[in-house]
Amino acid sequence: MPLKPHVEVTPAAGKLGILLPGMGAVATTFIAGVLAIRRGLGTAIGSLTQLGHIRLGKRTDGNSPAIREYVPLASLDDLVFGGWDIFPENAYDAALRAGVLESKHLEPLRLELAAIRPMTAVFDRSFVKRLDGPNLKEGASKMELAVQLMDDIRAFKRANHCERLVAIWCGSTEVYRQASAVHASLAAFEDGLRESSDDIAPSQIYAYACLKMGVPYVNGAPNLSVDTPALLELARAYRLPVAGKDFKTGQTLMKTILAPGFKARMLGLEGWYSTNILGNRDGEVLDDPESFRSKEVTKLGVIDHILQPHLYPELYGNISHVVRINYYPPRGDNKEGWDNIDIRGWLGYPMQIKVNFLCRDSILAAPILLDLALFMDFAQRAGMHGIQEWLSFYWKSPMTPDGLYPEHDLFIQLMKLKNTLRYTRGDELITHLGAEYYD
Q1: In the listed set 358, 375, 410, which residue is the last one of a domain according to the structure?
Q2: Cβ contact 326:300 at 8 Å
Q3: Cα–Cα distance, 85 to 182 (Å, whole number)
């Protein structure tokens, strides 16, 4: 029996525009991939919305529809792409420069990709010190820049005949900042925009502009961005979903897979040493210590939240957790992560696990962008607003409402995501409790 009447979800009719602040390796790999998939030139490997299934009812019922058929998601054929970047190259040239996809995949898409040109960007070199570019907006204040972004959004929606929009930050990692007085309320933030407060980062200007235009906003970097009282107040006022932060792709993905296993088996952990080499623009940006600090904070929080050392001090109370990222240009987008994990078993005997993950950063991130765009659009049509904690599955540092700690266990995150979808349809939630024992 259904738990309740299903949630009324507005149909996914018409075009969905996906706006991408930052049209570098991740964004162009995503765009090119979607164009290739809808032409039948590739498969959406890594995408839960395209390949995933969801069980309904008992295991014996054999009812596991595809997620894309179970809930009304936008069709890939209805997606339209746009965005902003500090470099003026079109999506084809930017994809070539990024070097993620081979020419055999890009050439059939050349005309479509070349037609996607970035709008002039909001940029402040004090927040991203290792990059600079010519394709920039100019304005008398940060509020004026926000208004220009709103004009861009309005023009993009009109020119592309979009019914709905979603924005996903794919720009660089900004220097580490904590929320200040200017972030305490929407009124304070808007005063700060008018006064061009030094504490307001470009990513926050994008978030403000998108939310003011009624566009759900996703933060793909560890930046403070939308994760402030001021912008959450704006999201609530406009009843918009927001999500973030920092796409969970390579090394952190492995941590959220392995650490729950150690905890499930009550294996002790003494240390986890992680190092990465990365040669793309992200690696160059993270070579700056202040930008690296933003990334380090999101990476370091994962293990503590999963292992709960306050509950298991004898197993996890004194972990040495070290994270390093090194810029190494020859590696390009093919990030390599090394992990040395020191664990303890029965009677405290030591053991070690070594992980060497040669991953393709943008290849892992692209399906995350697709899922988040479709799920955030679904959330908006389902009347779900504020922090979308059910999408924690995709984040290194999931945003949570006040008073809640983030859930990092990948498998709990996936259960929460699927149960949220079941809830919207009024179907019974899956708890894995064997009801046959209580008949």
Answers
A1: 358
A2: no
A3: 26
Name residue 177's amino acid.
R
Q: How confident is the model at residue 301 (pLDDT cuts 50, 70, 90)?
A: confident
- List pLDDT tens digits, range 216-261: 999 999 999 999 999 999 999 999 999 999 999 988 999 999 999 9
| Cα 246 from Cα 222, distance rounded (Å) | 5
Question: What is the C-alpha separation between 302 and 257, in angstroms, rounded?
Answer: 11
Which tokens sit at 312?
């298991």
Claim: this prediction has a pTM higher than 0.90:
yes
Q: Dig out the tokens for 27 from the structure.
A: 């964004």
Of 305, 335, 358, which residue sits at a domain end? 358
CB atoms within 10 A of CB 14: 12
214 and 235 belong to one structural domain: yes
Same domain, 222 and 337: no
Token pair of 379 as six digits: 């959330």
Beta bridge partners, 344, equal: 268, 350
Identify the CA nearest to 385 among candidates 245, 206, 248, 233: 233
In the chain the first and final C-alpha atoms are separated, in Å, by 16
> Which residue, 50, 101, 36, 113, is CA-closest to 373?
50
Asked whether residue 435 is domain-assigned, the answer is no
Give CA 422 to chain center in angstroms: 22
- Domain around 120: 15-247+363-425
Structure tokens that stand for 360 in this block: 């393709």
